[in-house]
Amino acid sequence: MSNYKLLGVGTNAKTIKGDGSEYLTAILYMTPWKVMVDGKQFNSCPMAGQASCIDACLYSAGRGAFNNVQAARMRKTEWFYRDRAGFMEQLVQDIRKFETYCVKRGIQPCVRLNGTTDIRWENIRPFTEDIDRLDDNIFELFPSVQFYDYTKISN
Length: 155
Prior knowledge:
Layout: E1 7-9, E2 23-28, E3 34-37, E4 40-43, H1 48-51, H2 67-82, H3 84-105, E5 108-112, H4 138-141, E6 146-147
Parallel strand pairs: 2-5, 5-6
Antiparallel strand pairs: 1-2, 3-4
Helix pairs in contact: 2-3
């Protein structure tokens, strides 16, 4: 399987049950809730307080309990908040690579960008120079990829 800088493929105990000859899922895991990056606080899960799910968050469940896994998630989160354009460019590259991998095998690519966050990806533009449609969001750039999500954001 291909190596990705941001996406995890075949690494999630829940999604691997649905992976196979028809579907394959890639997930982006980052640090949820409130994080400090360069002295500024960011919230990657804005409804966590209201939804009362902070203590029950799956961020540290399973492999997420390991320090190296949490450190990797934090590095991705810091990249997202420090260099949004660079992060989005890498995300586009990873999704393209994943889509190509799946298409060659006749498998439907599925992507979940909020593995442990609740970011409104529909409001974020990729900002990459090699894309003609700069007004599109990540979902619109990949119409053949099935994106899915779980959210606590009611609207």
